[in-house]
C-alpha cells in the first residue's frame, strides 16, 4: 500500500520543480492565448488571437509545411537509421569499433548542422564549387537553389543528417540483444534476407522505432534552431512564426504567439495518443499472425 | 519719474532673482548629480544591451568600462541580450511583483520603448537628472518612432540607413528608387532585402514608402489610417513589380540582415543595406568586406533613428545607472564612439553647444572612405515614421508582397 505513496514522496523533490516550471508555463501560455494576464493590455474578445490565426491561410500553410518537413525528415531518418544499424549488426564483430564515426552528428548541436548545411548547399557553397571545378557548372549562378526553398530540401536534409545517427543508436541497442540463432534457423529453412529482415527483425524493432519516431517527429515539428538558420521565410516553419509574433511584433499581439504554442502543444499531445493507439493495434495484429 | 525708477528697480530685482533662480536650479541638478556620483561609488552597473556586434561590445568592455572605473569607481557589466528579450523579462518581473530587479540600464528604442512605457516598466523621467543632457538639442530627441520620450530615456547615439556596394563590381550604384527598379530588372537575382519584421528590412520598406508616396512630411502628425490606406498601394505595387527579379525570384527573402550580409560578402547579391552608416567601414576594418566597398543614400532621403538608454522601474542601482547614462553623453565618450576604429556611431550632441575645441575634434574625425561625410548624411536625413505606420507596414507586407503570387 505504502509503495506507491512513498514512491511519490521520494519523487517530490523532482516533481515540484517539474510541475511548477512546465505546468506554470503551460498555464500562462494558455491564459495569454485568451488575452488574459497580458500585462496592461485588455482584449474585448477572448478568442481574438484564434480569430487572428484563422482569418487568413498563412497559419494553416505554415502548419502544413511544418508537418510535411517533420514527416519527410523523420521517415527518411528512421528508414536510413534502421537500415544502417542492420548493416552494422551484420558486420563481423571486429569491425564494430570503427563504426563509432557514425556518432559524430550526434554530438553536433542542431544549429551547427544548420551552418554545415549553409556551407555545403548554398549557391556559393562547397558543393557548388566542386560542381564548378568538375566542369558541371559555369559559375555559381548555374548551381540549383538548394537553400531556403519552398520544398524545404535544406531543412529535411539537415534533419536527416542529424537524426539518422540517433535512430541508429536507438535501434542498434535493441538489435544487439536479438538472438542471432533465430536468423540462422530462418536461413536454414530457406528464408531470403529480405524476408528475414521484414518478418523477423522489423517486428522485434517496432517498439523502439515507434518511440524514436514520436521523439523525432515532435522535435522536428516544433524545432526552432534549424529553421532559424536554413528555412525559408515563406511559408516558413511554425516555430519561426511563433518567434516573430513573440519577439518581433508589437507586444499587444503576443496572444497570437501563445495561441500558436497552445495549438502546437495540443497537436503534439493528440499525435502521441493516436500514434501509440495505432502502433498498439498494428502490433496486436502482428502477434495474431 | 520716481515711479519709473521704482519700476526699473523692481524689474531688475525680478530679473536678477530669476537669473539666480535658474542658476541655482542648475546648481541643484549638479549637486544632486554629485550626490548620485557619491552613491554610485564602488557599485556595479549591469547594462543590458544588444550584443550582436563585436566592435560595439569591445568598445563597451574596453573604453567605457575602464573610464567608468577610473572616474567613478563603477564596475560596468555588459549583459548581451536582444531588447525584445530583456523587455520581456522586465514584463515578467512586473507581473510577478518583483521590487528589486537585476537590470540597471537598458539599451532601447522604438517599439521596445513603447512597450515599456505602455506597461510602466521604466524609472523616470531621467534626462533632467543628467548634466550632460544640456549638450543635446531636446527637440531632436522629443520623439522615438513617433512616441513621446518625456525624459524617460536618454539619447546616446544615432544611426542612419545606408546602402552598401562594391565600387569595383558596380561602378554606378542605383541611388534613387526609380533607378533601383530599373537596375534590379536588368540584374535579376542580384538584389533583395531582409524580410520584415527584421529591423533593417522593415526600415527599407519604410524608406521606399516615403520615397514612393511623396516624402515623409505628411506622416509626421501621428498615425492616420486613411492616409495610410490612400498611399500604401503604391508601395506594394513597386515591391511586387521588382519581386520576380529579386534573389530567389522573390519566392523567399533573407530572414535577417545577417543572412543578407552573408549573401553580399559572397557576391550573391551586389547591393546590401545597413541601418548603420559606419558598418561597412568597420566590416572593411574587420576584413569581412573588400576595401572597395562604399556606401550611398537614396536621393529621396535616408531614415535615421536615435538609440537611447533607460532605467528599469526596479533597477537595483539607479544612481549608478544614471551616472553611466550621463557619462555616455559626455563629449569624450561621444567622440570615442564616433571614431570608426571604435564603433563609428554618430553623436547625439548638438555641436553648437560645445566649445570650439570639442567642435574641432568632432569635425576632424576621419570617418573612413566607406562612410559618407556628415554633410552628405545630414542632407539626406529624414526622421523615422510613427510606430502605428510601422506596425501596419510590417503586417501588410507579409500579405501583399511575401505571399502574393
Task: For the structure shown, list the relevant keywords.
heterodimer, A: 289 residues, mainly alpha, B: 405 residues, alpha/beta, three-stranded antiparallel sheet
Structure description:
The complex is a heterodimer of chains A (289) and B (405). Chain A is globular and about 75 Å long. Chain A has twelve helices and no strands. Chain A is mainly alpha-helical and 289 residues long. In chain B, the strands form three sheets. In chain B, strands 1, 2, 3, 4, 7, 11 and 12 form a seven-stranded mixed beta sheet that branches. Chain B has a three-stranded antiparallel beta sheet with strand order 9-8-10. Residues 19-23 of chain B have low confidence and may be disordered. At the A-B interface, α11 of A face α3, α4 and α14 of B.
What is the general shape of chain A?
globular
As residue ranges, the low-confidence spans of chain B are 19-23
How much is the average pLDDT of chain B?
Answer: 90
H-E order of chain B: HEHEHEHEEEEEHHHHEHEEHHHHEH
Give the DSSP E fraction of chain A (strand runs of 2 or more residues).
Answer: under 5%
Counting H and I runs of at least 4 residues, what is the number of helices of chain B? 14
How many strand elements of chain B?
12
Mean pLDDT of chain A: 88
Number of helices of chain A: 12
What coarse outline of chain B follows from CA principal-axis ratios?
globular
* Rg of chain A, alpha carbons: 24 Å
Main sheet summary of chain A? none
What gap, in angstroms, lies between the N and C termini of chain B?
A: 87 Å
**Nearest-angstrom radius of gyration of chain B?**
24 Å
Characterize the main sheet of chain B.
7 strands, mixed
User: Low-confidence stretches of chain A at least 5 residues in length (pLDDT < 50)?
Assistant: none
Helix content of chain B: 40-55%
Question: Structural class of the secondary structure composition of chain A?
Answer: mainly alpha
> What is the beta-strand fraction of chain B?
5-15%
Q: Give the largest chain-chain interface (CB within 8 Å).
A: A-B, 28 and 36 residues
CA(first)-CA(last) distance of chain A? 40 Å
Amino acid at each position: 500500500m505504502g509503495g506507491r505513496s512513498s514512491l511519490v514522496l521520494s519523487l517530490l523533490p523532482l516533481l515540484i520543480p517539474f510541475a511548477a516550471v512546465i505546468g506554470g508555463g503551460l498555464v500562462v501560455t494558455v491564459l495569454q492565448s485568451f488575452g488574459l494576464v497580458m500585462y496592461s493590455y485588455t482584449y474585448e474578445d477572448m478568442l481574438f488571437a484564434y480569430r487572428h490565426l484563422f482569418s487568413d491561410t498563412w497559419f494553416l500553410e505554415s502548419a502544413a509545411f511544418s508537418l510535411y518537413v517533420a514527416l519527410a525528415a523523420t521517415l527518411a531518418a528512421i528508414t536510413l537509421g534502421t537500415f544502417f544499424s542492420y548493416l552494422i549488426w551484420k558486420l563481423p564483430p571486429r569491425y564494430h569499433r570503427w563504426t563509432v564515426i557514425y556518432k559524430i552528428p550526434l554530438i553536433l548541436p542542431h544549429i551547427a548542422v544548420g551552418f554545415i548545411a549553409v556551407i555545403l548547399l548554398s549557391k556559393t557553397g562547397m558543393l557548388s564549387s566542386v560542381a564548378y571545378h568538375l566542369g558541371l557548372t559555369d559559375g555559381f549562378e548555374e548551381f540549383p537553389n538548394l537553400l531556403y526553398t519552398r520544398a524545404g530540401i535544406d531543412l529535411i536534409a539537415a534533419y536527416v543528417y542529424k537524426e539518422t545517427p540517433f535512430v541508429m543508436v536507438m535501434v542498434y541497442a535493441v538489435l544487439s540483444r536479438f538472438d542471432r540463432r533465430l536468423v540462422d534457423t530462418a536461413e536454414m529453412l530457406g528464408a531470403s534476407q529480405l524476408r528475414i529482415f521484414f518478418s523477423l527483425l522489423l517486428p522485434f524493432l517496432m517498439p523502439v522505432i515507434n518511440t524514436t519516431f514520436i521523439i523525432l517527429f515532435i522535435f522536428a515539428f516544433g524545432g526552432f534552431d534549424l529553421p532559424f538558420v536554413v528555412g525559408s521565410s515563406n511559408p516558413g516553419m511554425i516555430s519561426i512564426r511563433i518567434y516573430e509574433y513573440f519577439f518581433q511584433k508589437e507586444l499587444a499581439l503576443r496572444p497570437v504567439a501563445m495561441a500558436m504554442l497552445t495549438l502546437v502543444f495540443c497537436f503534439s499531445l493528440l499525435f502521441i495518443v493516436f500514434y501509440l493507439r495505432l502502433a498498439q493495434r498494428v502490433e496486436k495484429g502482428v502477434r495474431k499472425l | 519719474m520716481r515711479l519709473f525708477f521704482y519700476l526699473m528697480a523692481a524689474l531688475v530685482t525680478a530679473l536678477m532673482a530669476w537669473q539666480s533662480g535658474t542658476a541655482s536650479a542648475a546648481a541643484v541638478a549638479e549637486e544632486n548629480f554629485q550626490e548620485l556620483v557619491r552613491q554610485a561609488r564602488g557599485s556595479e552597473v549591469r547594462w543590458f544591451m544588444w550584443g550582436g556586434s563585436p566592435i560595439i561590445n569591445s568598445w563597451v568592455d574596453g573604453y567605457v568600462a575602464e573610464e567608468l572605473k577610473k572616474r567613478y569607481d563603477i564596475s560596468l557589466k555588459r549583459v548581451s541580450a536582444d531588447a525584445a528579450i530583456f523587455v520581456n523579462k522586465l514584463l515578467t518581473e512586473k507581473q510577478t511583483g518583483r521590487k528589486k530587479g537585476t537590470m540597471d540600464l537598458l539599451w532601447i528604442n522604438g517599439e521596445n520603448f513603447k512597450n515599456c512605457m505602455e506597461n510602466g516598466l521604466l524609472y523616470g523621467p531621467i534626462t533632467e537628472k543628467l548634466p550632460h543632457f544640456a549638450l543635446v538639442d531636446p527637440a531632436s530627441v522629443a520623439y522615438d518612432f513617433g512616441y513621446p520620450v518625456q525624459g524617460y530615456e536618454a539619447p546616446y547615439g544615432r544611426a542612419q540607413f545606408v546602402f552598401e556596394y562594391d565600387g569595383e563590381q558596380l561602378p554606378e550604384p542605383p541611388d534613387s528608387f526609380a533607378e533601383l527598379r530599373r537596375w534590379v530588372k536588368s540584374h535579376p537575382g542580384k538584389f533583395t532585402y531582409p524580410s520584415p519584421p527584421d529591423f533593417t528590412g522593415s526600415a527599407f520598406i519604410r524608406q521606399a514608402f516615403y520615397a514612393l508616396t511623396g516624402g515623409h512630411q505628411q506622416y509626421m502628425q501621428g498615425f492616420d489610417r486613411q492616409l495610410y490606406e490612400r498611399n500604401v498601394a503604391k508601395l506594394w505595387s513597386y515591391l511586387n513589380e521588382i519581386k520576380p527579379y529579386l534573389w530567389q525570384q522573390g519566392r523567399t527573402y533573407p530572414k535577417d540582415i545577417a543572412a543578407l550580409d552573408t549573401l553580399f560578402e559572397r557576391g550573391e547579391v551586389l547591393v546590401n543595406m545597413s541601418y548603420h552608416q559606419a558598418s561597412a567601414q568597420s566590416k572593411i576594418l574587420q576584413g569581412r568586406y573588400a576595401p572597395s566597398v562604399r556606401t550611398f543614400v537614396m536621393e529621396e532621403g535616408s531614415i535615421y533613428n536615435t538609440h537611447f538608454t533607460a532605467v528599469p522601474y526596479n533597477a537595483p542601482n539607479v544612481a549608478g545607472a544614471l551616472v553611466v547614462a550621463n557619462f555616455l553623453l559626455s563629449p569624450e565618450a561621444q567622440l570615442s564612439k564616433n571614431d570608426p576604429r571604435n564603433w563609428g556611431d554618430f553623436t547625439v550632441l548638438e555641436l553648437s553647444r560645445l566649445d570650439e575645441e570639442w567642435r574641432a575634434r568632432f569635425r576632424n574625425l576621419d570617418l573612413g572612405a566607406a562612410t559618407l561625410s556628415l554633410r552628405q548624411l545630414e542632407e539626406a536625413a529624414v526622421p523615422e515614421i510613427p510606430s502605428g505606420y510601422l506596425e501596419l507596414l510590417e503586417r501588410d507586407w507579409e500579405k501583399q508582397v511575401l505571399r502574393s503570387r
